[in-house]
Amino acid sequence: MDNLGVSTSRMKAIEELLRGRDSAKQLSSVINGSGENGSSANPKKLVKEVLMSFTKSLLLLNSDPTSESHDVSSVQVWDSLKQEDSQESNCKNSTVKSRRGCYKRSRMEQLREMESEAPIDDGHQWRKYGQKEILNAKFPRNYYRCTHRDQGCSAKKQVQRVEEDPILYKTIYHGDHTCKSLENPQIILDPVSPSSSSMFLSFNSLENPVFNSSFPTPSKQECPFLSSSFTSSVKRECKEEVIPPSTSSNDYLISSDLTFDDSPRHVTLSSSTLDSEYKGVDISDVLYDSAQLDHVFEPFLQFR
DNA sequence: GTAATTTGACCTCA
DNA sequence: TGAGGTCAAATTAC
């Protein structure tokens, strides 16, 4: 696609990301104790700036209807916009038993198609209701529907590994969420601290080995501070496909209430959302040098 | 005990 | 007619 039609929202988002990257670099310098650029900046302030940058960028991208970057970690293709087929199945009046298999086939419904390097966590809760071997396809197709179907939410999705590139997962969304589970699926606020600017970031572990090695895909017990939707989805997908942790993306909930202990090299997680045993995790290895930061930001900025 | 997943059967539609 | 989508009982996980 060409970039001529880049919207102002996207340009602003990119500006925000660049600003965030600068702040992250400064933060990196502070953590490394290099103090270059004469940066005596307050690390707390820098963290807030980085988080603010991500938040603003994601808001901008999500509010931009022309943006293809609703999910910055994936390639999204608005496959087709079709009218919802209002035709109700004529099975409505039949008994529960005889209604088996009665469904609206997605002939004219709205669908979105996207590919990502790991099963996408879009912030919504999904329940798997089927798996099907597809003719001439190496991998089965998995069928999910919104957990809040009882609230009338008809959103569904199909997930299937891409044959040509098994690292990729193709996700097709059918219908929109009418449930209130999340109004903005790309930005997940930490339910424990709703006032915080916590947000959900997706880092590609293949492109960012530092994340991969530092953060193997955790279970919920192992990492209770991670978004529950993240851990549940990863757990489910891994169980189905036995995805080794090294091939799944690592999505982490970054909380804004990071604090710093006396040593500038040690960044300590002391979020209220952490269980005591996870407080004191040293993430300085993650934010070690600015070269790695560039690597982290690279996928976000490639849309320029 | 409850919720989620698995899987074979069933149904629709091209 | 068969591929694909869904149902729902059985099973598993928490």
Automatic annotation (TrEMBL):
Stored SMART domains: WRKY
A Pfam family per the record: WRKY
Keywords: DNA-binding, Nucleus, Transcription, Transcription regulation
Cytoplasm keyword on record: no
Signal peptide annotation: none
Gene3D superfamilies for this protein: WRKY domain
PANTHER family, alphabetized: WRKY TRANSCRIPTION FACTOR 21-RELATED
Name of the molecule in the record: WRKY domain-containing protein
Entry's Gene Ontology cellular component terms: nucleus
UniProt keyword annotation of Plastid present: no
MF-aspect GO terms: DNA-binding transcription factor activity; sequence-specific DNA binding
Superkingdom of origin organism: Eukaryota
Ranges of biased composition (kind: Polar residues): 25-42
